[in-house]
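Go through this pair.

…
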Amino acid sequence: NNSGYNRGIDVHNYNHNLKIEDNSIINNGEHGIRINERNDMYSIKSNTINSHSYYGIYLNVYNHGNVEYNLIVNNGGGIYINGAYYGPTSILNNTISDNNNDGLYWNSYNDNQYTLRLVNNSITSNNGVGVNINNGGNSNSIYYNNSWNNSNGNYSGSLATGTGNLTNINT
């Protein structure tokens, strides 16, 4: 417990190849993981992030990296990424469920250059939008996600063409 800031893991400026892996981050007040400004190539992997009043993972300005194989449940929100910069961000194979706000919120500083790759996530039963994309549209890659039963809709915002469509394939 990071009681000075009421955050589980709180990382500040100018880190390269930061790894936050294999942790149980539970009931630490505000955010489970908060990464602030200019951290590139972070890896947030295989963590259980549960019971925080704000977001399970909160990434604020000039960051990029990978978020994968995490269980993010019962927080104020799931994943919040604002001001992604310096490279692409991948969010892969996470379970994001039962949070009190959006499952995922995304915003980058450049629609075409700093993009989101959102693949194979289960984003369910959040009390906001499941996947809320502020910008990027067709520059983002959003595939094979299971987003359902979210209070304010499953997908919203600047989405890549075809996002959220169900298809039937007969062989």
About this structure: The chain has a mean pLDDT of 90. DSSP finds no helices and 20 strands in the chain. The radius of gyration is 15 Å. The longest strand covers residues 77-84.
